[in-house]
Amino acid sequence: MKEKLDSIVFKTLEKMQNVKTTEALNEIRVSVLGKKGELKEVMKGMKDVAPEDRPKVGQMVNEARDRIESKLAEMRQRLDQEKMERQMEGEKIDVTLPARKADIGHRHPNTIALEEMERIFIGMGYEVVEGPEIEWDEYNFTKLNIPPNHPAKDEQDTFYINKDIVLRTQTSPVQARRMEQGKLPIRMISPGRVFRADEVDATHSPSFHQVEGLVVDKNITFADLKGTLEQFAREIFGPDTKTKFRPHHFPFTEPSAEMDVSCFKCGGKGCRFCKGEGWIEILGCGMVHPHVLEMCGIDPEEYTGFAFGVGLERIALLKYEIDDMRLLYENDIRFLKQF
Questions:
Q1: Are strands 186-195 and 127-128 parallel, antiparallel or unpaired?
Q2: Which segments within 182-337 are labelled E, that is strand?
Q3: Which compartments is it annotated to reside in (predicted)?
């Protein structure tokens, strides 16, 4: 029995000398110490050993197991150390090499234009107010003096969740919500995404952004509206920019106008950019309709106000001379890095 155990230990230690991986070492462990290993087979022969010799044989088996397990532990530690050294050698970093720069993208032209507009109006005492993109039909149309079956609704009838809920077509509902709160005076702009059933082309998209403004206070006149928008135009397009107001119709303002700015490329002389007209249309505006004030709980005999709305993409396209609106939505970093 002793000779058999010595032979098992010798052969096992000899096999371990040529082992290169922990997987191969584990195979040796299983073949010797596992449930069907060689030592287990020796233990099965204990029934043939005389009872008085069994303690001695059991001690010899335990000593053989201890020698093998000790060598296995030693070999496993050595193999793990060699593996770590190879890994560290392969993954070492040359700290003298230039560091990799993190690609953090670039600010979008819409974001740049919006931040500049917010800076201008905040400087004039306005606050920035946001509202839900999924809106009640009542706020999106009715409270803005566009009742059911009104012709003006056909231009904006768009994406409905149901007959009472719609994806907002303008950010004006935010103004109606603020007026309902009754906290006067009001000086606010409401930027955000809006939705209309437009075909995608160089100047249209079913989803775009607006920035609308509202002022409600005592003794507000059209002169206040003109002065505000003239200051805005000079701030965003340059100090020499001139403005022109043309009569127009919006259901929620009366009187209403569209505002043009003098072409900042040619100074109003006429060029390709302004199509030879010298003027560029940028926004719609007007005095808040008395009926809108009434529906929002404000006395039109005591308070007046003005409102305006401008497409954010239109400002970005004009300011940065982009000729196709679709470029704004492709998020190509090569395009965005130009601004």
A1: parallel
A2: 186-195, 207-217, 243-250, 253-262, 279-288, 304-311
A3: Cytoplasm
Is the distance from CB of 304 to CB of 311 less than 8 angstroms? Answer: no
Q: Which of 334, 9, 318, 307 has its CA nearest to residue 170?
A: 307
Q: What is the CATH number of the domain that holds 190?
A: 3.30.930.10
Print the domain residue range for 164: 109-336
The residue among 18, 20, 57, 24 whose CA lies nearest residue 39 is 57
CB-CB contact of 139 with 148 (8 Å): no
Which residue is listed with tokens 């000086």? 187
Kindly report the average pLDDT of the chain as a whole number: 85
The predicted-structure confidence for 285-311, as pLDDT tens digits, reads as follows 999 999 999 999 999 999 999 999 999
Residues 6+ apart with CB under 8 A from 200: 206, 326
At 30-43, the pLDDT tens digits run 777 777 777 767 76
Is the same domain home to 57 and 127?
A: no
254 is in an annotated binding site: yes
Burial of 234 from C-beta contacts in 10 A (0-12 / 13-18 / 19+): middle
Would residue 99 count as lying in a domain?
Answer: no
- Beta carbons of 131 and 177 less than 8 angstroms apart: yes
Q: What is the pLDDT of residues 151-202, one digit of tens each?
A: 767 666 678 888 889 999 999 999 999 999 989 999 999 999 999 888 888 8
The answer on 200 and 290 residing in a single domain is yes
Residues 227 and 331 in one domain: yes
Mean pLDDT, range 40-63, rounded to an integer: 70
Model pTM above 0.85: no
Count of domains for the chain = 2
Integer-rounded Cα Rg, in Å, for the chain is 40
Q: Does residue 97 sit within a domain?
A: no
